[in-house]
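INFO  loader      accepted 1 record
INFO  loader      residues=66
INFO  predictor   begin
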Amino acid sequence: MLRLGLKAALGRLDEDESLIASELEEFWIESRRRHLAVGVDGEVLWLEPPLHFRSRPAALAVIVPR
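INFO  predictor   done
INFO  writer      dumping tokens
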């Protein structure tokens, strides 16, 4: 994690072969574990799998200065 953080700070994440990035509209996470630690809005929640995530385009209104 430290190495990934340093590479991110230096703008070199594209050089790290251990990081895989994908753009998905929806995905599921299944696990044999009874609970998974998930970071939500800066807090850690323990959730029961399967976890279902989906993208909701235009779901967040953002106000920016002109």
